[in-house]
Amino acid sequence: MNLEDAPESSNVEDSRGMGTKLAIGGGGGLLLLILALVFGPDAINIPQGNAPPGNDPLNKAPQNPAARDEKTLIFTKKVLGTTEAVWNDEFRKMGKSYTPPHLDLFSDQVRTGCGLAPAAVGPFYCPADQRVYLDPTFFEELEQKLGGSKGEFSQAYVIAHEVGHHVQNLLGYSARRGTMDDNDFSVRLELQADYLAGVWAHHGQKKFNFIEPGDVESAIKSANAIGDDRLQKRSGGFVHPEKFTHGTSEQRVKWFQQGLRTGDASKPTLDHFFTARSSRDL
Hints:
Elements: E1 12-14, H1 70-93, E2 102-105, E3 109-112, E4 115-118, E5 124-126, E6 131-134, H2 138-144, H3 152-171, H4 182-208, H5 215-225, H6 228-236, H7 249-262, H8 267-275
Parallel strand pairs: 1-2, 2-6
Antiparallel strand pairs: 3-4, 5-6
Helix pairs in contact: 1-3, 1-4, 3-4, 3-5, 4-7, 5-7
């Protein structure tokens, strides 16, 4: 991935090695409801939590300064910068103004507006504080344990997917559950976020020419590795569609490729994810 001409976002905060941060109150409790190494549940179902007793994380000195490598920070700033450029333009086409999310690089665990989250939750978006949270060690887990790709464009796709959840939040799709059950609604949101990541790649390529040979394949490999069907087979050997929360590998790849091919962020296209009879029809 060539990000030489990409702008750097000013909305990235690097708190790796700083211990738990963003204290919101006293009390106890640690969030431990995690689906192993998936892109979610993107904080939508993360409950509110409190900081551990006697912990004043905002005054902590860095525990591991070496963890804050400059390369990852610059890469993250540039990827987020491309999403800002793309979504500023797309929202302008809609007659709207885009407010970009902040992105927090962390290690071990982080306190968010949605609760206290350990790194095992994977990258996620918290609608309560409109932030994307990412522990970069996730990418090693994605490659080594789930069979995904550790390539830069694959990592950028992950960030763009989480920014897609922010776009959903701004456009009101995150509140369009209606009579859908939790799993069905979650799959629709996840597949739409994959599609929005493809839309980002489509327009980002036109603006910054950042896709290099093999990049798209690396993103597809990662999308294919984290479908619910693949993850369920890995964990128990059986596939239970009624328990899907992110969609099948085939669906995830399909919608990322569709967004990449068309770049269409029009309302009718985005509405389709919630007007389809069932998420299984997507």
